[in-house]
Amino acid sequence: MEKMKDKTNFFNIPNCLCYFRILLIPVFLLVYFYAKWEYHYVAAAFILVLSGLSDFLDGFIARKFNMITDFGKLIDPIADKITQFTIAITLLFTYPLAWILLVIIVLKDGMLGIVGLYLYDYGVKVKGASWWGKIATAYFYVVVILLIGLHIPNTVPSQIMIFTSSALMFLSFILYAKELRQMIKDKDKLKDEQKID
After folding, report:
1. How far apart are CA 69 and CA 56, in angstroms?
2. Rounded distance between C-alpha atoms, residue 67 and residue 175, angstroms
3. What is the DSSP letter of 10?
4. What is the mean pLDDT of the chain?
């Protein structure tokens, strides 16, 4: 009976919103790369707005109605990362400077993943996204939605938006690195204390 209950958790509302967000990715790519008119780019940007709203709603509903599941904790960040990587790579085709964003995203998420697994082996859980990470991510989405919707390659405003978003992402990367370094130190102290006991 317990197994059946766990199985239904795969299809609660928050998790279904995560699936919806993942399914929006190929739709976004199709609309963007086959765009012929300006309104096609606006449509592609709207898909990203829809993706962002579904991201907000799945977290809100999960907390508000106590629908948080272990699977949801896994699929939600996966959906986020896939969406971010897809957007950053897509931007490269129109905005060459987007490689800076892509490199920082790969470094930050790679660091969080590797160090997170390392700490997990010692029973230390990495905290969720911090406020600076949320601000950097929110600004990233605002920037990419504007860049895609307005479609303004090779312009000063587009370069400023990419540089400022990259700077915020890089700052987030540094702050996460400092936090993880402290967690590793705390883990080492815990190991030393256990040896003494």
Report:
1. 16
2. 31
3. G
4. 86
Asked if the model's pLDDT at residue 193 lies above 60, the reply is no
Measure the CA–CA gap between 83 and 91, rounded to whole angstroms.
12
What is the pTM for the complete model shown? 0.83
Rounded to whole angstroms, the Cα distance separating 195 from 197 reads: 5
Single-letter amino acid code for the residue at 126 = V
pLDDT at 54 over 90: yes
Residue 94 per-residue DSSP state: T
Q: Which of 63, 55, 61 is nearest to 82 (CA)?
A: 55
Distance of CA 14 to CAs 21, 75, 115, Å? Answer: 11, 10, 27
**Domain map (residue ranges) of the chain:** 1-93, 97-197
- C-alpha pair distances (Å), 125 with each of 74, 154, 185, 195: 14, 43, 14, 21
Long-range contacts of the stretch 97-101 (C-beta < 8 A, 24+): 97/158, 97/159, 97/162, 97/163, 98/162, 100/162, 100/163, 100/166, 101/140, 101/162, 101/165, 101/166, 101/169
| E strand intervals along 61-171 | none
**Spacing of C-alpha 111 from chain mean position:** 14
